[in-house]
Design a protein that fits this description.
The structure is a homodimer.
Chain A (H helix, E strand, L loop, with lengths): L3 E6 L5 H4 L5 E5 L4 H10 L4 E4 L3 H9 L3 E6 L2 E2 L14 H4 L3 E5 L3 H7 L5 E5 L4 H11 L3 E5 L8 H15 L4 E2 L3 H14 L2 H5 L3 H8 L6 H4 L9 E4 L2 E4 L1
Parallel strand pairs in A: 1-8, 1-9, 2-7, 2-8, 3-6, 4-6
Antiparallel strand pairs in A: 4-5, 10-11
Chain lengths: ~240, ~240
């Protein structure tokens, strides 16, 4: 049986050299877009339409859509709400189509769309995600949204955790240095994850804006088995 | 006193978002270009002219220059020799100007040329390098040559080692996740560096071509205090 490879791409800027049309691409932006998207589906959203630019988000708003949009952690004034998972309450999102634009996450989703299946990954759905990937028998490429095309630790740690779970299945392998590095960093961090996350740059950015209340929540494992998937230009449940 | 920041860029593909005209940029390609360049200066080379393309290297050869050129670890037929540090013997290089083109390293050097000073870093000269950077009072940006724009472990580990040495000086700091990650990986690896290096992708590539004899040598610390520096379009000693 042919084996499936795992690769991790640390930044959208490197995506062209990792791109793999045969792979399941998991997009992750732990603090906070992918955690917020998974939460929205837990709370009954029907579709999320990821858009890259604020102009596109504004155009949707003008057509009557509900819009979540932020840049650098700050809600845009034309938007209904921002990027915190706590914003995506059942009262707001149940049965709705919501347009979503964030600093890093939504661009990464659109970039990933060349994959054979594009999934949204967070700790909140990590075991369900790993189970689906192990069963699918395809290559896995994890795309970290990063921060403005820079490497970030929190997405990398998630990539390491997911890679370890998928590699438990014999027919997966990796010779990708980024995957090996992510798994080693996860081993170093997971002993005391909240202690480790203290030092990451994004925690400082969130704290500055009093938005760091979600960090613990975004690192909770397996609150759901739901897996958001990209269909054409919107996210729905697979 | 203003503090100086340290950043690490894991791939030439991400360089535009890390670029810093005020910084000393250290280019590293541990297996093998930066180790070979430092060795060449240890053995008396006068100048190394890094060129990006094989066409440029060939054009220099036609004008009578001695040329070291390889792609994917294989010496090009028009070249005098390839990329192993063992090729840069005193008999061959002493007093010479040598043109050099490699898969990853030489392009990274040219990319880095926007920095205030561009230095070549390897374990072979790591302490001298750290000493110079600590004394210079400028930001430090370490550019990992990577592998065809992908992340690699061996360059990242070196970046972690150098960052730790420079951070011992109080007036340096880092809030760069890539620097923090590199230092944590170096801590994990340095307990048994040769054991750790067993798993990196580049070791497998070198082994396939029987070129892995240099791996131990390329991880030796402080064989020299020489620091190659980019002047206009060639490397010389600073």
């Amino acid at each position: 049986m042919e084996k499936q490879k795992i690769e991790v791409c640390y930044s959208p800027a490197m995506f062209p050299v990792y791109e793999n049309h045969e792979a399941i691409v998991v997009v992750t932006d732990i603090l906070r877009a992918s955690s917020a998207i998974v939460t929205a589906f837990m709370n009954g959203v029907e579709r999320i339409i990821p858009v890259g630019t604020l102009e596109e988000a504004k155009a949707y708003k003008d057509r009557g859509y509900m819009v979540a949009a932020e840049r650098d952690g700050i809600v845009r004034d034309f938007a209904d709400f921002g990027n915190s998972p706590y914003n995506f309450t059942p009262e707001r999102v149940k049965g709705k189509h919501i347009v979503y634009s964030t600093t890093n996450g939504t661009n990464a989703i659109r970039l990933a769309s060349s994959g054979s299946e594009v999934l949204i990954g967070a700790y909140l759905n990590i075991s369900a995600l790993a189970g689906h990937i192990r069963a699918a028998g395809k290559d896995l490429l994890i795309l970290c949204a990063g921060w403005k095309n820079k490497f970030n630790l929190e997405d990398t740690l998630f990539a390491g955790a997911l890679s370890q779970m998928v590699l438990r299945e014999d027919h997966f392998y990796t010779i990708c240095d980024a995957t090996l590095g992510a798994m080693d960093l996860y081993d170093a961090a997971s002993v005391d994850m909240m202690g480790y996350i203290e030092k990451v740059a994004q925690r400082h950015r969130l704290k500055m804006n009093n938005l760091d209340d979600v960090i613990g929540y975004c690192h909770k494992h397996d609150l759901t088995e739901m897996i958001p998937v990209l269909e054409k230009d919107y996210l729905t449940l697979r």
